[in-house]
Structure formats: structure tokens, C-alpha cells
Amino acid sequence: MKVMVFVSHEVKEFGAWKKGFDANQTARDVAGFKQAFLARDAKKPNLVHVGFFAPSVDAAQNFVGDPKLKETMEKSGVIGMPDIRIANVA
Fold it and tell me: Is the pTM of this model over 0.90?
């Protein structure tokens, strides 16, 4: 079964966040994540939505629960708590 991870969060400045996001590609590769989309909200351009395919629910939970991810997100300018959802593709 395919698994997707959906992440939505506000950032201080998209360009700075994108640099941090791109710099974290190796960690996503190691976790087996494949990016499905990256979008900016039509009305709030600093509200970012990202979707990934993950190898399993366990892999997704391990990745999003890793304290290193929280630290990386904070350093790249994520504001507040991200909305992270893990779903089985129907």
C-alpha cells in the first residue's frame, strides 16, 4: 500500500525556507521519501504545502517524529506547529 505524508506550515520567508528545505534532501532520500508536490497557498504565499510518498507508515512516523526534523524546520523559518498528516493512498 502506498503511503503519503502531507505537511502544511507557515514560514517567515519562502526563499529562506526553500534553501533549508532543499538542504534537507539527503535526509528525505535516506528515509525513502519521494516528493509528490510543493505548493504555496494562493492567498498566503508563506503558507507552504508539501506532499511526499513514503515507503511505509512506520517510516513516515519515524521521519516526522525525529527531533532533527523539528530543529531543521525551526532553523529554516517554520512558524508555529506544522500540520502533518500520514495517509494510506486509496
Answer: yes
